[in-house]
Design a protein that fits this description.
This protein is mostly beta strands. The protein contains no helices and 14 strands. It has a four-stranded antiparallel sheet with strand order 3-4-5-6, with no helix packed on it. It has a four-stranded antiparallel sheet with strand order 7-8-9-10, with no helix packed on it.
Length: 205
């Protein structure tokens, strides 16, 4: 799958037309390349936000369906790093979002969903700059991730975790940006409603 960045440009007659800014692809082919993407804070400190693209069905380094997440420069679209646990059928990266600056080093970090063998789904906070995992949290039946902004005003962004099938009603969990501890749980109001299937930051309403 090719991931294509598009912009809208006005033609002479005033009509809007989609214009390709950049195309990304990987070899070998991965059908789910680009299934999850996220804008990150500045990873390489060039003053431009960077971005992450997942390929959760990729057999990275020959490990079946291990999955991988690639981080690209927002300025040049060049590959900065590839993140993966190279773990069998983990589907690493089936959901992801910006983690703000989770470790306080002044560079953007990323929250990545995975399903390591033998345990529930996980939220894994990675430093793209270092290429290492900062923290791992086990959660029930994760489906979606979203950056929640700094809700507790400690300077770190919280992470929203959608768990639509972990309980009969589904739930959304709020993880602290500083240490990933559980700050709260919001449950759906209707049975089997799959509450938390998708998430987005609503800003300051």
């Amino acid at each position: 799958m090719l991931l294509e960045a598009l912009a809208l440009a006005a033609q002479a007659g005033g009509a809007l037309e989609e214009v390709a800014i950049h195309q990304l692809g990987i070899t070998p082919f991965s059908p789910l390349f680009g299934a999850a993407t996220a804008t990150l804070q500045d990873v390489d400190l060039d003053g431009v936000p960077d971005y992450a693209v997942s390929s959760s069905d990729e057999s990275y380094r020959g490990v079946h369906l291990s999955g991988a997440v690639r981080v690209y420069s927002g300025a040049t679209h060049t590959l900065l790093t590839t993140l993966s646990n190279a773990s069998y059928q983990e589907n690493f990266g089936f959901a992801l979002c910006s983690a703000g600056d989770a470790d306080g080093d002044g560079r953007g970090d990323v929250a990545i969903a995975g399903v390591p063998s033998g345990i529930n789904s996980t939220v894994q906070i990675f430093s793209p700059h270092l290429g290492t995992r900062i923290r791992l949290v086990i959660v029930p039946s994760l489906s979606a991730l979203a950056n929640g902004g700094d809700m507790d005003l400690d300077g770190r962004d919280e992470i929203l975790v959608g768990c639509p099938t972990g309980t009969p009603n589904g739930e959304v969990r709020l993880l602290a940006g500083s240490d990933s501890r559980l700050l709260g749980i919001k449950s759906g109001l209707v049975n089997y409603s799959r509450f938390g299937s998708s998430l987005a930051n609503a800003g300051d309403l």
